[in-house]
Amino acid sequence: MSDLIDDPRPGQNMPEYTVSEVSGAVKKTLEDQFGRIRVRGEVGRVFTARSGHLYYDVKDDRSVLACTTWKGQVSQLSVVPEEGLEVIVTGRMTAFGGQSKYNLNVDEVTVAGEGALMAMLEKRKKALAAEGLFDPARKKELPYLPDIIGVITSPSGAVIRDILHRLRDRFPRKVLVWPVAVQGAACAPEVAHAIAGFNALSPGGALPRPDLLIVARGGGSIEDLWGFNEEIVARAAAASDIPLISAVGHETDTTLIDYVSDQRAPTPTAAAEIAVPVRLELLGWVGDSQARMTRAVSQRMQTRDQRLRDLARALPRPENLLSGPTQRLDLMSDRLPRALTRSVDLRRGRLIESAASLRPSLLSRALAEQRRRFDQSATRLAPGLSRVVETKRESLARRADRLTLKPIERDLAVKQDQLEALTRRLSNAGQAQVKDWRSRLTALDRLRETLGYKETLKRGYAVVRGDGAVVTTQKAAQAATALEIEFADGRMTVGAAGAKPVTKSKPKPPEQGSLF
């Protein structure tokens, strides 16, 4: 009865909650209260995880708001956060109960004001200039009269019509148009992809490779032209093997692609004028050049003709040059028949004299005498050859008696004994050398084991690794997601989920300064 009357102890009638219930209620209240909001501030620490998620802070002079952009949302951002940039972020507030933290899940980032855009542009410009992308020495010369021109622009704007109309008026050329978005989040990746795509075409293929590229867009605000200030566009233009003309905006507008392109045009129409010469002017120049060349050749021929006439007057007349040889030819013509008749008569007389001594009887006697001498020589030839052969056979027999194998066998036996002796000496020396090396290797291995880091671990030291790398400072240990500690008898991992032992395995040698 006293229990029903006595007052309960203070706090006994308050409800109890689990930790998950409290975290869930806080998350629901936070998301319901704020929902989708826009926050303005300065970007602080920016960290890109291995998974592709983007973590950064947005801060003012008094507070810091943690922001998260998931991997799938990063590609949709028109501006990627950079440290020190003033931005306006849009997203939903949420809480992470595992660490009792709240953050803003951001899916849209815009730059807060033109001043911030210009500051970011100057920062990018200095970084690219330091790499040498603005160096005039790396810029390529434009072709004088390209066969094919590639134009990267919007297919529905007035820019492409102005370019085609200007090319048709000046010098009609083949034009390949690569349609792209010229503003918005898709502008930069599409323009960079178009530049790389034109460079990837094969010369003379089904779709021929252009000789010149024009990247064009009409005028607009700095926000509209911002896609051409992205680093991906500047690097794609710098890497282009095809000469490139940038014609973005009006004459007063300047973007990063203007600095890295091979030539900048103030307007898209001016880019078409730079790309090709005026056909009528070129034809006029060719006609003038042809006329000048014709006059020069004619004048040259007249000069040479006059010079030839002047030199010809100093030469003797042709009839005077031929008068002497003509007279000698006439004289020789008169003497030649008489000389030929006299020569034939002389040779006929010599032939008759020689033929008188060539009678058949004399030839028969000379032939019989030659046959008799031949028969005598043939009878003496066979005995002589037999004697020579016998002499050679006897000389060969005498030399063959001296060619026996006994001296060679004796010399071979002596050499074999010497070889066996050298082989035994070499084997003994090799075994001794190997034994000495094995002893030294054993001593060095004992020294290695003594000086190895495992002996240090046995004296009470340990090796700490974090995220696959050896940790040597407190700052690196705090930044690691999990720590692995190696002792002399095994390893253990310390992380968000607690500590767990790791099976003992062959340890890797630690880096310098990793023992503590």
Automatic annotation (TrEMBL):
Compartmental location: Cytoplasm
Exonuclease VII large subunit C-terminal domain sequence ranges: 133-358, 362-493
One GO location term (cellular component): cytoplasm
An example Gene Ontology biological process: DNA catabolic process
Molecular function via GO: exodeoxyribonuclease VII activity; nucleic acid binding
Class of the enzyme per the UniProt entry, highest EC level: hydrolase
The protein's assembly and partners: Heterooligomer composed of large and small subunits.
Function: Bidirectionally degrades single-stranded DNA into large acid-insoluble oligonucleotides, which are then degraded further into small acid-soluble oligonucleotides.
Similarity field: Belongs to the XseA family.
Protein name: Exodeoxyribonuclease 7 large subunit
Organism for this UniProt entry: Marivita cryptomonadis
Gene expressing this chain: xseA
